[in-house]
Amino acid sequence: MHIDLETLVVTPSEMAGIDRAAADSGLDSFALMERAGQAVAAVALRHHPGALRFVVLAGPGNNGGDGYVAARALLKTGCTVELFAFGPPPTKGDAGRARRRYRGLARPFVDYQPMRGDVVIDALFGAGLARDLAEPLCAAIERVNSLAIPVIAIDLPSGIDGRTGAVRGAAFQAERTVTFMCRKPGHLLMPGRSFCGSLEIYDIGIPARIVSAASHHLRVNEPHLWRMSLPSAGIDAHKYGHGHLGVFSGGRLTTGAARLAAGAGLKAGAGLVTLLSPAEAADANAAHVTAVMVRQIDNLAALRTLLSDPRFSAFALGPGLGDFARARNYVLALAESGRPLVLDADGITAFRDEPDRLFHAFSDGPIRLVMTPHAGEFARLFADLADDATLSKVDRARAAALRSHAVIVLKGADTVIAAPDGRALINANAPPWLATAGSGDVLSGVIAAHLAQGMPAFEAAAAGVWRHGAAAAAAGSGMTAEDLINFLNGFDQIK
Ligand SMILES: NC(=O)C1=CN([C@@H]2O[C@H](COP(=O)(O)OP(=O)(O)OC[C@H]3O[C@@H](n4cnc5c(N)ncnc54)[C@H](O)[C@@H]3O)[C@@H](O)[C@H]2O)[C@H](O)CC1
Ligand SMILES: [K+]
């Protein structure tokens, strides 16, 4: 069986379990540290062959151990290396052994004076960072950052929490980060991701089956994880029609958001898309669309009539909707109808006073609700999860998915997609300029189009988030939400 470590993401505590399992299986743990440190030295030499001096900042744990190995390897090549040790130098275990094999000088950390021309190997803390950094660490890190000294971080930039991506006091702004076997959440979640520089993942020889057995269904969002669920995928193509997507429009002055979602839905592959518009906005909508259709829906009775047509295969509700009471009534009717639904923006906010009513409505049967909140909307439905500072973004999305029996797309530069069964993905293909007015409406439309074509909710959401990011990357900076729609690629072009 092929185990894919490329997309796997493991938390620091899972990684510690992996280390133990590797040792229990007879693997030489010092050999792992040797390979880790040697890999870092090789990266340093490859990228900085002309460094005036390599400065290894070594902490008291195994991250420091990797640093001693790297320092020894760099010394051996004739480079100038200085090592500054923070805290009690390791004496026991692999790190102690690595320290003893390093024959150079170890100076106290406080002696380090950052200088231009240095290349810093950051071996202070990795997976074992347990609390906020204090002085003199913070001041030294800030000084290195302010001098723009290139930093090669071992495993994680020191100060970045590997589980959450949070900055604990201060963190190195690394030029590159060398990690081992697979990524950690802190490499992908913000702000951690922005401190890592370019990330190199090095195989230090832990068998993939050991890594995978200790991991818990967290991955980076990549097409091969959902490609087989795409409507056009190979021999399954006949299973799916292209569906009919209904997108609810707001009132007279707030129709644009729904039109963006509808246009995106059509471009993303829904066979038919109809804007479901209140009377006051029907003319405005009709005047603006061509391939997208418009149908007047003014009340629950009209919606129920529409729902008696089985060809409507999915809905999107929320962008620009405005009227919360109407939103709640419609959502509950949609839930009853069994149709899949993307709930966004006002559709989410509409349930702020009674989230359980929403969750209850979708609590039975297969997952058919996808919610796409940004952090603020998330807090309206899941205040306790939003307030719990111990939770990572992944933990929050997972807990919310479980509670709501929905797929949660918790948006941001590091969008997390989570399912009630615990599967979770961190998205990493979105450029910063995707944060533009209307881009969330486009995302709703794309995901809803996938649902309309019969994709399961988790895959529909994951594919939607990825295609949305890819479209933004293709559109380039300065794009608008309309451009984003035009740059949505067909399924056949997803590599
Ligand atoms: N399989 C692997 O991935 C391998 C990883 N290696 C490296 O080992 C580290 C993790 O080592 P660990 O000893 O568990 O933790 P750290 O070295 O990161 O830190 C623990 C050390 O630091 C002290 N400490 C923690 N937080 C603070 C703080 N805020 N201020 C001061 N001191 C702090 C704590 O008390 C401990 O003493 C992993 O990242 C890899 O680099 C192996 O080398 C190869 C196998
Ligand atoms: K580090």
From TrEMBL:
UniProt cross-references to Gene3D superfamilies, sorted A to Z: 3.40.1190.20, YjeF N-terminal domain
Cofactor: K(+); Mg(2+)
Subunit structure: Homotetramer.
Identification of the protein by name: Bifunctional NAD(P)H-hydrate repair enzyme
Binding residues for AMP: 411-415, 440
Chain ranges of the YjeF N-terminal domain: 15-212
HAMAP family: NADHX_dehydratase, NADHX_epimerase
Enzyme Commission code(s) on record: 4.2.1.136, 5.1.99.6
Domain YjeF C-terminal: 222-495
GO biological process: metabolite repair; nicotinamide nucleotide metabolic process
Keywords: ATP-binding, Isomerase, Lyase, Metal-binding, Multifunctional enzyme, NAD, NADP, Nucleotide-binding, Potassium
